[in-house]
Design goal:
The structure is a single chain. 40% of the residues lie in helices and 12% in strands. Helix 5 links the parallel strand 3 and strand 4. Helix 4 crosses helix 9.
């Protein structure tokens, strides 16, 4: 007898975690593997933030807290939204979760009924559709390909909206493409949403501070204040503050929605790690200068990877506006055969052969809903990136 639920059969394991796990297993077996699949900075958490966590331990701040965050952290989050985004929230409108993923999941669980639709532009972060399915909804995937800079057009959004649409999930800068929407590009989308008052907006701003060159970050409720009462603005400390393992995500939105999310969290994990909450206060309130310094490193790595991948015949790699990913197309390689004998009939076949034949781990594009492509995380050392891209160049050049 199968003990698993029918709901579980609707979802699949995270492909990015699977790639990272396989790369680690190959390393343990003695293989020379360069992992470009993990979505986390290779920088250490800044010293002041680490010190705040240690201080919390030493001061005995290790007990239960309110289910969705301590008041001091909620105040810091409200201050952040005002300072960075011009958005006014009070603590009762804020929820703190065990990472950004829990925030998104709580919101979907609190709002979706069977058959409700959620619009998700593709390429998308791998977990969006599966979280919708777990919550009983139906993901509506709308392609936004390389020809539009991986950005959804207003016309495509309009065409996807139906009477059953409950949410539009928006992510800029994007995982997996690094694409960032300008104010005018986002205003075109918010104009559409203003015509459909039954559609709510879930904006994933996790890469807000990882913005490069002349790109200026903006978020939907900032661009269109008329959406404030039906927008959940989500963020966290994982990426910009190099705190992935600390597991703190947060969001602000209407009190009725936050209350529903709090109820779910109170019956699942309860409060996020107390120590991490105190460290997150320091992250949001403390020095921010290291972000610009880290971004200089990311820009250098981005440019290295883009240049080396674009030198490959059959590969096209756009320059991203933010995050720490590139999403090159391999349309020109489909139908060829690797030196090891693998026919490259899909981006999954490409990624599998690349790992097995060269020891470079990337994530195939189908995992993100748009093929043929693959994602590279350049949140690793320059030396590792140069060696990995050199191996990718040789792998592609040897194809017949």
């Amino acid at each position: 007898m199968n003990p698993l639920s029918a709901t579980l059969s609707r979802v699949k394991p995270s492909p990015t975690i699977a790639v990272t796990t396989k790369a680690a297993e190959m390393r343990r077996a003695g293989h020379d593997v360069i992992g470009l699949g993990a979505g986390e900075p290779d920088f250490d958490t800044p010293e002041t933030i680490r010190a705040a966590g240690i201080r919390a331990i030493e001061e005995g701040k290790t007990r239960y807290t309110p289910p969705d965050g301590i008041p001091e952290l909620k105040e810091a989050i409200c201050a952040k939204f005002k300072r960075d985004n011009g958005l006014d929230y009070v603590p009762a409108q804020v929820s703190v979760g065990t990472g950004g993923k829990q925030i998104l999941y709580n919101a979907l669980m609190a709002t979706l009924n069977p058959g409700d639709e959620v619009i998700i532009p593709a390429p998308y972060w791998v977990s969006y559709p599966d979280m919708v399915l777990l919550a009983g909804g139906e993901p509506v995937v709308v392609p936004a390909g390389i020809e539009t800079g991986f950005k959804l057009s207003a016309e495509a959004l309009e065409a996807a909206i139906t009477p059953r649409t409950r949410w539009f999930i928006f992510n800029s800068p994007s995982n997996p493409t690094g694409a960032g929407y300008t104010w005018d590009e986002l205003k075109a989308l918010t104009d559409v949403l203003m015509r459909h008052p039954h559609v709510w907006v879930m904006t994933d701003d996790m890469y807000e501070h990882l913005a490069y060159d002349d790109f200026k970050f903006c978020t939907p409720a900032q661009v269109e204040p008329g959406l404030y009462d039906r927008t959940l603005t989500c963020n966290g400390v994982s990426k910009a503050y190099a705190m992935t393992g600390w597991r703190i995500g947060y969001a602000a939105g209407p009190e009725v929605l936050i209350g529903g999310m709090r109820k779910i969290q109170s019956q699942s994990t309860s409060n996020p790690c107390t120590i991490s909450q105190w460290a997150a206060i320091e992250a949001l309130n403390g020095p921010q200068d290291f972000i610009a310094e880290n971004n200089k490193v990311f820009v250098r790595r981005r440019d290295l990877v883009v240049e080396m991948l674009n030198a490959i015949e059959g590969v096209t790699c756009p320059v991203p506006e933010g995050a720490f990913y590139v999403y090159p197309s391999i349309a020109g390689l489909i139908g060829r055969t690797s030196e090891g004998g693998t026919r490259i009939d899909s981006d999954e076949a490409f990624a599998t052969a690349l790992l097995e034949e060269t020891g470079v781990a990337v994530v195939f594009g189908a995992a993100f809903g748009l093929s043929p492509a693959f994602r590279v995380s350049y949140a690793t050392s320059d030396a590792a990136l140069k060696e990995a891209c050199t191996r990718i160049q040789r792998f592609c050049a040897a194809m017949t």
